[in-house]
Design a protein that fits this description.
This protein has 208 residues and is of the alpha+beta class. The chain has four helices and six strands. It is elongated, with a radius of gyration of 20 Å.
Length: 208
């Protein structure tokens, strides 16, 4: 995309809004390479939602004091948030901005077999956008259940069911910060984390 000075002012304002977006402590968010063929300008963010783990104090005495490492946090969900921008607008998007997202999370077996799972996943998206005042239009997406079965030397892993949601929509305003915050909330919902008021920490739950 060239240097920052070459970016359109409207796109720069959108990037500034993304930097100000609030998110929960369980979310690890970082910039990743953006697709180059979808729009003249784009930025992409990748995320992992990890389960918070308690920090245990090391033993007070003995050589094992410096050998104890904190447990690795469990990954609950992953996702991508991509903001596209075309200064000339797009007839397909019906606007200058377009948001493209992807979320994947492993489900509990009883929930993964629910025939209404796709509808539920789409409802999570719509409700998250509405709750954050992220006005939008021209939304579309697909929800996919993925059954993974292991055999041979891997049969001890057991079967798993994942949910994937691929969606895109056009922001009705240039305030894309609200859209990233809504998406972050949705990723946490996919990860099975309970909704929390701002500033309240989530106590970790053990998953079998």
């Amino acid at each position: 995309m060239g240097g920052v000075s070459q970016l359109p002012a409207e796109f720069l304002d959108a990037l500034s809004g993304l930097r100000k977006a609030a998110r929960r402590s369980e979310i690890r968010l970082e910039e990743i390479p953006a697709p180059s063929r979808l729009a003249p300008f784009a930025v992409a963010l990748g995320t992992e939602v990890v389960e918070a783990t308690p920090v245990l104090p090391p033993p007070l005495h003995g050589p094992a004091r410096n050998l104890i490492l904190p447990p690795e946090p469990a990954e609950l969900a992953t996702g991508r948030f991509i903001l596209l921008y075309d200064p000339d607008g797009s007839k397909v998007w019906n606007g200058r901005f377009r948001i493209v997202t992807y979320i994947r999370a492993e489900l509990e077996p009883d929930m993964g077999n629910d025939v209404l799972l796709g509808s539920v996943a789409w409802t999570w998206l719509v409700e998250a956008l509405d709750n954050h005042g992220a006005r939008h239009h021209s939304a579309g997406g697909t929800a996919t259940r993925i059954l993974s079965e292991s055999y041979g030397t891997l049969e001890d892993r057991g079967d798993t069911i994942d949910i994937e949601l691929r969606a895109s929509w056009t922001p009705a305003t240039t305030d894309v910060r609200r859209h990233l915050e809504a998406w972050s909330e949705m990723v946490c919902t996919f990860a099975g984390l309970p909704p929390l008021p701002s500033g309240v920490a989530h106590l970790p739950l053990r998953r079998s």
